[in-house]
Write a structure and sequence with these properties.
It is a single chain. By secondary structure, the chain is mostly helical. It is 78% helix and 0% strand. The longest helix has 14 residues. The chain is rod-shaped and about 30 Å long.
């Protein structure tokens, strides 16, 4: 199972780029 934290962090990293 993928950790929700990891998924959120990955999405956050993408948002931070913008």
């Amino acid at each position: 199972m993928i950790s929700y934290s990891q998924w959120i962090i990955k999405k956050l990293q993408r948002w931070i780029r913008y």
